[in-house]
């Protein structure tokens, strides 16, 4: 009988580098197929916002599965309007459209910007990551994953992240929108200067271009506010969200400012905003709402515990630079039962469940510091 690894090698396209099989999750912990327990500081890459298999989320999914698993968007979907209302009010923006992932959310944002602005070009930033579909890849900088698929049908320029003069030079009368991460996640939690978001807003306003804020990783309470843009006084035109929105059930969304929306027939999706995803999303929202006041303090525990690394911290988005030693640190931490993530440019990324406790944080930073001492 084939092992699981052998089956995977034979039948699954080799897109991922994988080293172990996770078979169970509970709270901030996961277990591998050998029964070893790990404290998970990756959380499905910022997806499992309420921890693994939160009882309230599991109950909501099961109850909805007994009632209705799928219903076409030809009809009203249970829970869809309620979740849209929550997201609209939390963001201070207008209407919502649901999708199934962050990449789909970015694609929807690009479509909305093109159809409403009447323009066709975009500007993003060096090291920004927005997804792997044809549309979202076109505004993703990383040449290794973008260039093999060019031409992508969308023109995009990439000034340096944080460089407002470079952005101003790149934006012109053909620019439909500027697409950006308020905190760069895939690169390793890069926090821009305080004047960056206000500067983007001013440049977009001057050029009559739209401002698309990619909150796929930074949204849904991860930074201590519902959305990372709320740490500034800036209001984008469109935000994209996914990852933490439904505790691991695939879901994404865009939220646009008042007066900016798709009209009938301009966009659609078979599975978007389905009953199970909305059931999980509504419960997830309520759990995050209760956790939100304590997120910043949890981030400060990481900042204090990892002070030797000069970490970059915004709520429970934590990153620090180790260079070539980053993979070794992740390997040693995994051996010691703590999962961390190696992001781009030799950076470590820590994005644990928002439910993580002070004791779990203190344990984690102890393991990380101990492992670093062995490198």
Automatic annotation (TrEMBL):
<keyword id="KW-0663">Pyridoxal phosphate</keyword>
<keyword id="KW-0032">Aminotransferase</keyword>
<dbReference type="InterPro" id="IPR049704">
    <property type="entry name" value="Aminotrans_3_PPA_site"/>
</dbReference>
<comment type="similarity">
    <text>Belongs to the class-III pyridoxal-phosphate-dependent aminotransferase family.</text>
</comment>
<dbReference type="GO" id="GO:0042802">
    <property type="term" value="F:identical protein binding"/>
</dbReference>
<dbReference type="InterPro" id="IPR015424">
    <property type="entry name" value="PyrdxlP-dep_Trfase"/>
</dbReference>
<dbReference type="GO" id="GO:0030170">
    <property type="term" value="F:pyridoxal phosphate binding"/>
</dbReference>
<dbReference type="GO" id="GO:0003992">
    <property type="term" value="F:N2-acetyl-L-ornithine:2-oxoglutarate 5-aminotransferase activity"/>
</dbReference>
<dbReference type="InterPro" id="IPR015422">
    <property type="entry name" value="PyrdxlP-dep_Trfase_small"/>
</dbReference>
<comment type="pathway">
    <text>Amino-acid biosynthesis.</text>
</comment>
<dbReference type="InterPro" id="IPR015421">
    <property type="entry name" value="PyrdxlP-dep_Trfase_major"/>
</dbReference>
<dbReference type="InterPro" id="IPR004636">
    <property type="entry name" value="AcOrn/SuccOrn_fam"/>
</dbReference>
<dbReference type="InterPro" id="IPR005814">
    <property type="entry name" value="Aminotrans_3"/>
</dbReference>
<keyword id="KW-0028">Amino-acid biosynthesis</keyword>
<protein>
    <submittedName>
        <fullName>Acetylornithine aminotransferase</fullName>
        <ecNumber>2.6.1.11</ecNumber>
    </submittedName>
</protein>
<keyword id="KW-0808">Transferase</keyword>
<dbReference type="InterPro" id="IPR050103">
    <property type="entry name" value="Class-III_PLP-dep_AT"/>
</dbReference>
<dbReference type="Pfam" id="PF00202">
    <property type="entry name" value="Aminotran_3"/>
</dbReference>
<dbReference type="GO" id="GO:0006526">
    <property type="term" value="P:L-arginine biosynthetic process"/>
</dbReference>
């Amino acid at each position: 009988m084939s092992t699981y690894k052998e089956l995977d090698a034979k039948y699954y396209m080799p897109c991922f580098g994988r080293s172990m099989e996770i078979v169970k999750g509970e709270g901030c912990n996961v277990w591998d197929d050998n029964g070893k327990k790990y404290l998970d500081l990756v959380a499905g890459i910022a997806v499992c916002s309420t921890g693994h298999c939160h009882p309230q989320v599991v109950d909501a999914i099961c109850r909805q599965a007994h009632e209705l698993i799928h219903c076409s968007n030809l009809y009203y979907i249970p829970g869809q309007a309620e979740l849209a209302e929550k997201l609209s009010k939390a963001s201070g923006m207008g209407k919502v459209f649901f999708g199934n992932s962050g990449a789909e959310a970015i694609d929807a944002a690009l479509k909305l910007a093109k159809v409403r602005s009447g323009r066709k070009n975009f500007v993003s930033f060096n090291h920004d990551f927005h997804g792997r579909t044809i549309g979202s890849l076109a505004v993703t900088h990383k040449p290794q994953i973008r260039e093999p698929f060019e031409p992508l049908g969308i023109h995009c320029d990439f000034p340096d992240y944080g460089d407002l003069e470079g952005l101003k030079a790149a934006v012109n009368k053909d620019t439909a929108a500027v697409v950006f991460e308020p905190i760069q996640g895939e690169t390793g939690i890069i926090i821009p200067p305080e004047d960056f978001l206000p500067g983007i807003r001013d440049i977009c306003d001057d050029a009559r271009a739209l401002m698309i804020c990619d909150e796929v990783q930074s949204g849904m309470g991860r930074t201590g506010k519902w959305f990372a843009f709320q740490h500034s006084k800036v209001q984008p035109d469109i935000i994209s969200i996914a990852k933490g929105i439904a505790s691991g059930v695939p879901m994404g969304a865009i939220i646009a400012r008042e007066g900016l929306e798709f009209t009938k027939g301009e966009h659609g999706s078979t599975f978007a905003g389905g009953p199970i995803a909305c059931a999980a999303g509504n419960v997830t929202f309520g759990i995050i709402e209760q956790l939100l006041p304590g997120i910043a303090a949890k981030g400060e525990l990481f900042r204090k515990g990892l002070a030797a690394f000069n970490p970059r911290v915004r709520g429970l988005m934590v990153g620090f630079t180790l260079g070539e030693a980053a993979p070794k640190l992740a390997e040693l931490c995994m051996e010691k039962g703590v999962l961390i993530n190696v992001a781009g440019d030799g950076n470590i990324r820590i994005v644990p469940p928002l439910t993580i406790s002070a004791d779990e944080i203190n344990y984690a930073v102890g393991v990380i510091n101990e492992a670093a001492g062995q490198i």
